[in-house]
Amino acid sequence: MKPGDLISGKYRLLRPLGSGGMGSVWAVRNELTHRDFAIKVLLPELSKNREALQRFFQEARVCGQIRHPAVVDVFDMGQAEDGAPYIVMELLEGEGLDTRLKTAGAVPPAEAAEWMAFVARGLEEAHVRGVVHRDLKPGNIFLARQPTGEIVPKILDFGVSKASGAKEADHIRTMSGAVLGSPAYMSPEQARGEEEIDGRSDIWSLGVMLYEALTAQHPFVAANYNALMVAIMTQPHAPLRSVAPEVPPELAAVVDRMLTKDRAQRIGQARELAERLEAALAAMPADVRHGMGGSRRSMGSSPSLSVGASGASRSGRLGMITEGSWSKGRGARSRPGVVVGVALGAAVLAAGGVLAATQWRSETVPMAARSSSAVVASLARVERRLAELKEEAAAAEQARLKAEEQARLAAEEQARAERAAQAAKALNARPSATPRRSVHGGVENPGF
Question: InterPro entries of this UniProt entry (predicted)?
Fold first, then answer.
């Protein structure tokens, strides 16, 4: 494949965003609609690998059925002229949470709570459909920057996900034989190798991310993989406020509850998690809530030029990640602007992710993310304004009815007063009767 090639008669290859031993990710333009997308292409020879195909098309199916602004959009899938399968996704601008944590360190509590509450809302949409992600980590949370400067977190890489009750996905392995998933973010039940993994495992992984975002350190650290698994299964984490006392207690309590090893005692549903995080955010002082630099409302710094799905990205490089990952590193261009192709990692026995590339000055990027997320945000604002207008109209109607009632009562009172005055006037105008004469013994009015 090379720039200028046409796939399926409509997707024109613009430039590569990343490549690896399993395939490549390109920025493309739909020649029919003139919209830009990211397209992930699996190598033709891997189309014969059942496990690779299973992950690849599972990604498309899962993301295709989850419609939420916190989940990356998949628009199309098909087969190229050379037989290679591909997935068409939204092209995002921004950076991964892993890159943000590496470059900026700990995230302000209000910012972290807002982002993760939004992610939990998107995760809820997956869980109600029976889909468990199973590989949530900072590299799979992308901070997509909208034209307005608003930051919209996006969940990536549902390639390792599993439908509830489906056991065959548990046995998918990488080429090296390692079970898919990121060790530092695995739940205790994943570390034990349990087959029945449900949405509470994803909540644990979000808890590890929140802990890391708030303290700039992992809750569990060990010298090697085996020791890490033992720590996750058996050792308690240091309470969040013992590491970062500046974190509000309400938020710290939520994170500590998310990291409960007994999943029966853990926060049980993504919706409950979102509500708890939103309540913790609302409990923060107003100056903390409204002074969030770089929150979903804005991103002050320029995005990094790298986002690696395994969390091993480096500034100035494109998707430099560990063995088994989707993309290899490429030198970054020197021109400003960043366009990130969302590579979800479902494709090829590797933890796929987001791949970044520098955007040329002359290019514009009418992204699906911009239209989708911006419309959602605009609709939310319109709905709030409509609610306010309804309240104002209801109050005005009540005031009008009250004024009309007062006017009616005043008119009735005035009418009664006028009738009373007319009656009194009529009574006063009536002629008085002539006094009766009294005569006794021939004397008129003798006085007795």
Answer: Kinase-like_dom_sf, Prot_kinase_dom, Protein_kinase_ATP_BS, Ser/Thr_kinase_AS
